[in-house]
Design brief:
The complex is a heterotrimer of chains A (about 425), B (about 575) and C (about 375). Chain A has about 425 residues and is of the alpha/beta class. Chain A contains 13 helices and 19 strands. Chain A has a seven-stranded mixed beta sheet with strand order 7-6-8-9-10-14-15, sandwiched between helices. Classes of the chains: A alpha/beta (about 425), B mainly alpha (about 575), C mainly alpha (about 375).
């Protein structure tokens, strides 16, 4: 090394250069005052892109529609789309980016439980507002999150009731992907079934990893378990990608829906659009919305969706309805509160009601969940569902399951108790309060 | 399903008529037992009972168009009571989803998809009724409960079929749902049945029914008759007699109980034996998937030394090719797979040549840098299919001949798609071996791999051989993609889920050795499946990986290490 | 070299190191100032979000330095280094989980939330002790170190080299990922460990804590870098480079090749573990995804993009690639993978020595 070069790059100048470089990072977020920013936090790449891209498009469509109606509070809505790339730490980082740098008024996002858990501390710290549109395992109620998807008592328990009462199922296989949603759901169902008098030997619980594709052994295990002279059903919390090979294997093994029906909680129209539905005929799914439900709101929604996405073949599904409900609730709350200030909007939301797509209405409960009807559908050969059962009225979402020992004493109420996990026995609120 | 059902010759004998009457009565009974009755459904059901009094075929058919499920259930029963030979094809068509109503006049036809059009058959006259457009017709839908009713109704009609195989299938179908009326018709059939095999099946069915008899001797005789039978429904019927966990439902008579225990024991012996066979087959089929997905890599990585991280994406291209081919020829699903294989070879192969010419050729001798470049490439390819085909999975239909089950006996069956994939893997492997060992291309490939400069000196155009070799490996990846499209999702992530396993297989087998790849893939598959019942799917895989790591410590160059000076190059 | 003291040689022996130290020091001074010292309304204010982001990059840079030490200097391409990173992260995560105490949603004083709702009755033995920061810190060093030592002991004595070694390191991290995914393991399964409250008594969400973590990451990077340089310029470092260039020859001369490799590998793993431990409190979550084999490949790519065998190159690479990723995932969410993929291809094809190599070439020309 020669001396002159070192001098020309002296220490002070390096410092100066570094400072300038860092200036690039400095977030001079000068939020334009004429728009309201809406954050969209859905994976557009990676493993979850399959499901989440549709929800991003749904939010964009809703924003589009709202802007056609003149926006909210006289301002246009502006979408801020980021890609957390199915990477859970990146979800937290992107949430912070949306809230701290872009200063969005509301975020629609997340699909998997882990992504929600990852962003939760960020939303609580920055006092953000998240609408979470996917059915999930419950056991959570945050002041800053509104859960517009189903809690276990709005999907899993009614489905099991149906199987038990109408199909006279006596023997149960709880088959799931090994992560928190199936684990919790199955824990709840196991406790529920036992409470209903099902013997432990009549319940088989089994977990497989994400994206599992070699189902031969598992399916033959189910087949063997089902051959004990009692009507057997499979309750499937198998996630996304693993479903196609699972149903293919069922079909090839000639396990038809008449013998061993499978009721799935994560298989909807969108998932079926990527599947040859022949082997699935007659298997069941439990949701709060099906595309095939006839109602004026639904036909209108489907029409708008087809126009927006420029493809008549695209299906709609349950999380899309949840996004639709969440978005409309937010717009209503902002209008009512007269501001986008999150504290005020959050305080306004409980008690608000908006029409869902199936002819009923969704009401925000004090525990930040909503009321939802439950439908059970049989898979048709065109990838749609025939509704075979539905609840008489909307079911209120329960944040804390009554069937788990750890959570049956807990209660969430952000209106009177101002607490997401109030212990009714010790009369104490642990965790986040406000 | 394309066989015209109407052309089957039928003889009407006296007892057939009698039997049909019984069947009709039964069907009525069944029809009255809807499997799920919510309030709305039961309301219409009561109406339905009184409503369509149309006793003739035409009337019933016409009523189907507007009927809901419970009404349809009634209509099916009525259809069966007609003891009309035309009823069976109609029921079958309904079961297969081939019964459709014309929107314009509500007339019902049996349809068959024929190109973009529908070929119509008038169910009343059993004659062709011209063509129609799919948009003008609406399918008469069925659901689970209805399909069950249909299957039993058809089975009862089929008991009179001339083909013994059909009769056996019918008896087996009826065995799944035994009640008084099924038993009555089976008993009637038992007397007149001539074929010993069919007679045997009926005897088993009757014995199954007798298990519930109040008479101890009848029960004992039934159990003894069932001893030696291995069918699942027999096992299903015997197991509850041993009582559940609380001892509920246990057989009360000690003699009968002993006989049940003996019979179940016999079945269990057989079940155990076939379970081992099953596991081996599962292992082989998992192994062939592993071999198939890694054999292309055995060329690009094993022979050429390129750490091709885009290998998975080349398989993905093959799978998407299968999808596109199927979209192009929607009416020849069976054929489309056959077309897709060469097409996928070409698409992935050409992509491979392009990759080699544009990227890999600058990186020879720097294997670790090929890893980085091809990893970047794999990201680009993934995003490319996301942009073109959307991030959603695509549906590739499994052709008829590949779906279903080869039922070898009551306890042992092989699924066709798995079986074909094992065979297909061996064929691909054989073909590749032939190319590498018996053709001039193979000779040159091996020469270049062993000593590039010497090969060049002998007049081999090494650059061209490099491109062709990479293309060959990539093309085989494409073929593997077609096979995978039959087993799993066709989506942008397809490649990523196989890439790590592929590398493991090649390394375990020994880099540069095709036989090693075959043996390592198959043995990893079998080890995995042997462990799975005990350890669970995830833990089995972990154990296999740990085994692999330890194995490489023992034999650092894999199962079949390359020998000689060429080996040092890697 | 005519410099007098060996320490000075070590620190300022080459131009790249001087730039590295200068920039790092500048960052450690300027960033806290701009965050805490400047009012939020000012255009110069640096948000806590950015501080955390930079802190994350610093831990990535440390990881990249660790990988460069074994790849650039010893020729061991590990495709499983995130295993050590994640283990360090999990050790830290377990400490942070235990710090939550009764503030979890179920208010259980001992068990983390995920254990409560999965009906675990008591804390598994391997969670004991993690309530003490000192023990956790020890585990941050020990867990990756011990694994690397065992693995290295097996692999290097059996003379597993080159591609084979790369693939089995990948198998290692893949197996660990699958294992940590299992809920039975007691590490929270797919959700991992999250919802941390405080570290060493400081609220983890406070800006000042973030600054502290940022500074700690910077210091860790500085020390780790210095240690790696010390190894690189030492006698042992020259042996290591000899191994890279001609392993058999070095062995025949009489050096115990496997020992050099083993200890270097272990040291590199410990550095990665420290990086992981600093990463977790800043991003707020650790889950099995961090073990992903693909992540390991990405680290290698940072090193390659920056320029390997330099130690400062990987630091640059980690910053450039991750900044590009952060920027592109927000600015061009639909097409960022094209850009990233193209970057990797272009760098390997046209910049075999990475960005540092390019800069050197340009400087060379100017002279």
């Amino acid at each position: 090394m020669k001396a002159p070069l070192i001098k020309s790059f002296g220490f002070s100048r390096t410092l100066l250069a570094a400072t300038t470089a860092l200036g690039l990072f400095a977030a001079n977020a000068q939020a334009a005052d004429d728009t309201i920013k809406v954050g969209v936090l859905h994976s557009l790449s990676g493993t979850m892109a399959i499901s989440e891209t549709t929800l991003k498009d749904t939010v964009l469509m809703m924003i589009d529609e709202q802007n056609k109606k003149g926006g909210v509070l006289g301002k246009k809505l502006e979408a801020v789309v980021v890609d957390p790339a199915s990477n859970w730490p990146l979800f937290a980082e992107k949430a912070a980016e949306l809230l701290e740098k872009d200063k969005v008024s509301v975020v629609f996002g997340c699909w998997t439980s882990v992504s929600r858990k990852s962003v939760l501390p960020v939303f609580e710290k920055d006092n953000g507002l998240l609408f979470y549109p996917v059915q999930y395992e419950g056991e959570e109620s945050s002041k800053n999150v509104f859960y517009t998807g189903a809690a276990p008592n709005q999907q899993a328990i009614p489905a099991v009731d149906y199987l038990m009462k109408d199909l006279k199922v006596k023997r149960w296989v709880l088959e799931g992907t090994d992560y928190v949603y199936p684990r919790t759901t199955n824990k709840i169902l196991e406790a529920y079934l036992k409470a209903k008098g099902v013997a432990a030997s009549d319940i088989l619980i089994n977990y497989t990893p994400f994206g599992f594709s070699d189902w031969q052994s598992e399916v033959s295990k189910i087949k063997a378990f089902g051959s004990a002279g009692k009507k057997t059903a499979v309750v499937s919390t198998i996630n996304g990608d693993a479903n196609v090979p699972f149903y293919k294997e069922l079909g090839n093994e000639k396990i038809s829906a008449e013998d061993i029906p499978v009721v799935a909680f994560s298989v909807g129209e969108e998932e079926l659009s990527g599947v040859d539905t022949k082997p699935l005929l007659g298997h069941l799914a439990a949701w709060n919305y099906f595309e095939s439900i006839k109602s004026p709101a639904n036909s209108e929604f489907i029409k708008t969706w087809h126009t927006f996405i420029k493809n008549d073949k695209r299906t709609t599904n349950d999380p899309m309805e949840a996004t639709y409900i969440g978005f409309n609730l937010w717009v209503k709350a902002v209008k009512k509160a007269g501001t986008t200030d999150t504290t005020k909007v959050i305080a306004t939301l409980p008690g608000l009601e908006t029409a869902n797509l199936t002819g009923g209405s969704a009401k925000v409960l004090p525990n930040h969940h909503i009321t939802k009807p439950v439908y059970i559908g049989e898979i048709r050969d065109d990838g749609q569902f025939d509704i075979v059962w539905q609840t008489k009225a909307e079911v209120a979402g329960d944040a804390w399951s009554d069937y788990l020992p750890g959570s049956k004493d807990l209660e969430a109420d952000w209106v009177t108790l101002k607490c997401g996990n109030y212990n009714t026995k010790t009369k104490k609120c642990v965790g986040q309060t406000n | 399903m394309s066989k015209p059902l109407t052309s089957q010759p039928r003889r009407t004998r006296g007892w057939t008529v009698l039997f049909a009457g019984a069947a009709a009565a039964l069907a009525l009974l069944l029809g009255g037992l809807p499997a799920h009755a919510d309030d709305a459904a039961s309301a219409t059901e009561t109406e339905a009972v009184s409503a369509p009094a149309a006793a003739d075929l035409a009337g019933i058919l016409a009523a189907f168009a507007a009927a809901d499920f419970s009404t349809k259930d009634q209509l099916i029963s009525q259809l069966a009571t007609l003891h009309d030979p035309r009823a069976r094809p109609i029921l079958q068509a309904l079961l297969d989803g081939h019964l459709e109503t014309r929107s314009s006049d509500g007339k019902v036809f049996i349809v068959e998809e024929y190109g973009d059009a529908l070929k119509l058959t008038d169910p009343l006259t059993s004659t062709a009724a011209g063509d129609g457009k799919p948009d003008d017709f609406e399918r008469i839908r069925s659901n689970n409960a209805l399909r069950k009713t249909l299957k039993v109704a058809i089975a009862q009609l089929e008991l009179a079929d001339t083909d013994p195989a059909v009769r056996i299938a019918a008896v087996k179908q009826m065995r799944r749902d035994i009640d008084d009326s099924t038993v009555a018709s089976l008993r009637a059939a038992f007397g007149s049945e001539q074929n010993p095999k069919v007679k045997h099946e009926i005897a088993v069915a009757l014995a199954l029914a007798d298990l519930a008899a109040t008479d101890v001797d009848a029960r004992l005789a039934a159990v003894n008759a069932l001893d030696g039978e291995a069918a699942t429904d027999v096992y299903n019927a015997l197991m509850p007699l041993l009582g559940d966990a609380d001892g509920k439902g246990i057989e009360t008579d000690p003699k009968v109980r002993a006989a049940v225990i003996a019979a179940v024991h016999h079945i269990n012996l057989w079940r155990g034996f076939y379970q081992v066979l099953d596991t081996l087959f599962f292992g082989l089929s998992l192994g062939s998937v592993l071999v198939l997905s890694s054999i292309g890599l055995a060329i690009t990585f094993g022979v050429m030394g390129v750490i091709n991280m885009a290998h998975g994406e080349l398989m993905m291209l093959g799978a998407y090719t299968a999808y596109v081919v199927q979209q192009l020829m929607p009416n020849h699903i069976g054929l489309s797979i056959a077309v897709a294989i060469p097409a996928a070879f070409l698409v992935s192969g050409l992509a491979g040549v392009a990759i080699e010419r544009s990227i890999v050729r600058f990186l020879y001798g720097r294997p670790l840098e090929t890893l980085l470049a091809t990893f970047g490439l794999s990201l680009i390819l993934q995003q490319l299919v996301r942009s073109i085909f959307s991030p959603l999975n695509r549906s590739v239909t499994t052709p008829e001949w590949m779906s279903g089950l080869w039922q070898i006996n009551d306890l042992f069956s092989l699924t066709y798609n798995r079986l074909y994939i094992v065979i297909f893997t061996l064929l691909v492997f054989g073909a590749l071996l032939l190319v590498m060992n018996r053709t001039s291309l193979g000779l040159k490939v091996r020469a270049v791999a062993q000593n590039r400069s010497m090969a060049k000196a002998m007049g081999v155009r090494t650059e061209r051989i490099d491109a062709l070799t990479f293309g060959l490996g990539s093309g085989i990846a494409g073929i593997a993609g077609v096979a995978l499209s039959q087993l799993t999702n066709v989506g942008p992530n397809l490649g990523q889920s196989y890439i790590i396993d592929s590398f493991m297989v090649v390394v375990f087998g020994g880099v540069g050795n095709l036989w090693g790849t075959l043996i390592s893939g198959m043995s990893l598959g079998i080890i995995n499946k042997l462990l799975e019942p005990y350890a669970g799917a995830v833990f089995a895989k972990i154990l296999v990986l740990v085994f692999l790591i330890l194995f490489i410590q023992r034999r650092p160059k894999g199962l079949f290490p390359q020998k000689g000076r060429a080996a040092e190059g890697h | 070299m005519r410099t007098s003291s060996p320490l000075m040689t070590l620190l300022f022996g080459d131009f790249g190191s001087r730039v590295f130290y200068a920039l790092l020091l500048a960052m450690l001074i300027v960033v806290p100032l701009l965050n805490l010292g400047v009012t939020e309304t000012s255009a110069l204010h640096l948000s806590t979000y950015t501080v955390t982001l930079l802190g994350k990059y610093l831990t990535y840079a440390l990881m990249a330095v660790a990988v460069d030490l074994i790849w650039g200097y010893c020729g061991i391409l590990s495709l499983g280094h995130t295993a050590f990173f994640a283990l360090g992260g999990y050790a830290m995560g377990m400490y942070l989980m235990r710090q939550i105490g009764t503030r979890g949603v179920y208010g259980d004083p001992l068990l983390p939330d995920f254990m409560v709702f999965l009906n675990w009755k008591e804390l598994p033995w391997y969670w004991l002790g993690f309530n003490h920061a000192a023990f956790a810190l020890l585990m941050v060093l020990l867990a990756p170190g011990a694994l690397a030592f065992c693995f290295g002991w097996l692999a290097f004595r059996s003379r597993v080299t080159g591609v084979y070694l790369s693939i089995i390191t990948q198998a290692l991290t893949y197996a660990l990922m699958l294992a940590f995914f299992r809920n039975e393991m007691g590490f929270g399964g797919n959700n991992g460990l999250t919802d941390f409250k405080e570290i060493l008594g400081f609220d983890i969400h406070l800006a000042s804590t973030r600054i502290g973590l940022f500074v700690a990451s910077g210091i860790a990077l500085g020390l780790g870098y210095t240690a790696c340089r010390a190894i690189a310029v030492s006698r042992a470092g020259r042996v290591v480079q000899a191994i890279r260039d001609a392993e058999s020859r070095t062995r025949f001369i009489g050096y115990r090749v496997e020992n050099y490799k083993m200890w270097l590998f272990t040291f590199s793993a410990v550095l990665s573990g420290i990086a992981g431990a600093l990463y977790v409190p800043q991003v707020g979550i650790i889950n099995p995804g961090e073990f992903g084999p693909i992540n390991s490949i990405e680290v290698v790519i940072w090193v390659a993009v920056g320029g390997r065998n330099t130690l400062y190159g990987p630091v640059l690479g980690a910053f450039v690639v991750n900044f590009a990723k952060t920027y592109l995932t927000a600015a061009l969410p639909e097409v960022w993978l094209y850009a990233l993929g193209a970057l990797f291809v272009v760098v390997t094809l046209f910049l075999p020595q990475g960005i540092v190599g390019l800069v050197k070439q340009l400087l060379e020309k100017r002279r």
